Amino acid sequence: MNTSDFDIIKDNGRYLLIINEKYYEINEVTYTIFLKVKEGHTFDEISELLHQEHEITSTPEELQKSITDIVTPLLKKEKANNLSFMWYKVDLLFPKHYKKIADALRFLIKPYVFWPVLVVFLLFNLYKLAFLPQHDMNGEYCTNTLGVYFVTYLCLFFILIIHELGHVTATQFFKQKTYSIGFGLYLIFPVFYADVTNVWALSRYKRVVVNLGGIFFQSILGVLLFCSYTYLDLNDQVLHVLHNVFIINGITMLVNLFPFFKFDGYWLYSDLFNLPNLSKKYQMCIRFWMKKIIRPLSSFFIEDERKYMNPYSLPLIIYSVLKVGVNVMLALAIFNFLGTYINTFGSILKVGNMDACSILKLVYKFAILTLLMIYFTKLLKTLYKTVRSKIY
Ligand SMILES: [Zn+2]
């Protein structure tokens, strides 16, 4: 049982279980069991205690099973909700497909291989990405042919499968059951996901490794790509594709590490600093400090938030401040993006140069813009809900 998966709260005679930012009302006995688990008691001790205080007879095994039966479906349910923004999804690879590969690669997860390789290779990728010529990054010069773009797009699928393979290899290394690797489309962006629900039963260190598994495999892929387009004597088109794939691989790594969207970086931060339900805690933290600063208005409500998180936790404060900053910058980015988008659109119509490259650029920018819009709609919805409700 891993205690960093859930929070429990007693609130005005109600008992609440919080898993992945969702609240579930539970009864007093269930609350007591969760509380004792969180306090580090063994199921033997809890069984004894329930017998004394509540006159409930149940074996430690029964207790453990009942808790697992409550937590597992809720973790799975939340996962299903997270994926609901995709308009298409399908299970692609099952354990029988990838088990052998994951077994063959398990040596990579051994601590003395994993950490040095991760640090060196990740830094190498980021360094190379940071010093790319500017036009490579924003694609202003349309030097690629349509064929190169198409093959690059297909390679994105390959990158994402490698990423998920990293997660499942790490999960398998820690002897946890893995499920399917699925594929979905989020607007025009392909998305892959591995069902690693069972990692919640792992220790914090192991969860961190599983969370980093995807990035880890991608950083190895990045080095291989870099070496092949730098040192191999290949034809120009192939070099172009390899170079593009290296860039996309690097960018997807960065996006994944970004802790302010619910990707790997978010779970990493939440595990590293033991902050389950981080995005809920972030909202509470902001509200706590708002109320504290605007003292005459509502300082006596502060206790509401204090129940859900420790408002003086440094990792939480840092996260909250940075996230507010990120949100402001994204808002500015939308306006900026909208401006350039209209410009690009206008110039294409005016000059009448409807070549494939400009149209692709337009589609791509439109997709990014839509992503930003979706993010902001969600943000405004949360803001509205937070302002309206007193507690959550
Ligand atoms: Zn991942």
Automatic annotation (TrEMBL):
Bilayer-crossing regions: 112-129, 141-163, 183-202, 209-232, 238-261, 316-342, 362-380
CDD domains: S2P-M50
Record keyword Transcription present: no
Gene3D superfamilies: Coenzyme PQQ synthesis protein D (PqqD)
InterPro entries: PqqD_sf
Domain of life: Bacteria
Keywords from the named record: Membrane, Transmembrane, Transmembrane helix
Keyword Membrane attached: yes
Name of the protein this chain belongs to: Peptidase M50
Organism: Chryseobacterium angstadtii
Lineage, highest ranks first: Bacteria, Pseudomonadati, Bacteroidota, Flavobacteriia, Flavobacteriales
